[in-house]
Specification:
single chain; alpha/beta; Spore Coat Polysaccharide Biosynthesis Protein SpsA, Chain A; 6-stranded mixed beta sheet; 4-stranded mixed beta sheet; 23% strand; globular
Length: 219
């Protein structure tokens, strides 16, 4: 399996990002990954730390701040050119134990996987129900090259609305502008692989492989 992260920008969320990068360097369990980078200085920072990187743009941003998560979607699109299948992780997602020998087999028959997340505020206002539930973009599996391209097209179509990347994922995983919880669980849920404190299906999970770290704690 191929693993991918990304880095863009130099301001705003960067203090947290730099802290998370240091956590990754000190993580108990490690795995090989490549970072798709925006910005020459970001590229130098990561390569100096020993990370494997690919420079996508000499500028640290190719989208304005209100659309910054488009960098993540563009990363998925670029990674799909290099890999038939891959797992994308944010810098604050960590491996909790050694990867099992049958890790690749856990994805058989899946084109896309992401944990379904519950927010406090409404996100998908086009739905009548489940408006606070969207796929989490902190950990995603892409099992077919066309998936990232389709998600990119969905996001670009509504670019003027400044959509977050998670709303594009929601559109991709929906059935006719609605969320069917049973369908999502069967087709896309990443139970056992990645889970959040605010996951819809958290109570089902018992032995998550990757977890999300926020404010010094593992969720």
């Amino acid at each position: 399996m191929n693993f991918v992260r990304t880095l863009w920008g130099t301001d705003g969320r960067r203090l947290k990002m730099n802290r998370d990068i240091q956590y990754v360097l000190k993580a108990k369990y490690s795995f090989d990954f490549i970072t798709y980078v925006y910005g020459k200085d970001n590229f130098k920072q990561l390569t100096d730390l020993g990370f494997s990187c690919k420079l996508l743009s000499e500028e640290d941003r190719i989208y304005p701040s209100k659309q910054e998560f488009g960098h993540k979607i563009n990363t998925w699109k670029e990674a799909s050119k290099d890999y038939e299948k891959f797992v994308y992780l944010d810098w604050d997602v960590f491996l909790m134990r050694q990867l099992p020998n049958n890790f690749d087999e856990l994805f058989i028959g899946k084109d896309f996987m992401a944990t379904l997340r519950i927010y406090h505020n409404r996100k998908t206002t086009w739905r009548k129900e489940h408006q606070r539930k969207v796929p989490c973009a902190s950990w995603c599996y892409f099992g077919k090259k066309s998936v990232a391209n389709t998600i990119h097209k969905i996001w670009k179509r509504d670019l003027k609305r400044c959509w977050r990347e998670e709303l594009a994922l929601a559109k991709y995983t929906e059935l006719n502008n609605k969320l069917d919880l049973n369908y999502y669980y069967t087709m896309f849920e990443s139970i056992g692989l990645f889970c959040l404190r605010n996951s819809v299906y958290r109570d089902i999970d018992h032995n998550t492989l990757f977890k999300h770290q926020t404010k010094g704690r593992i969720d």
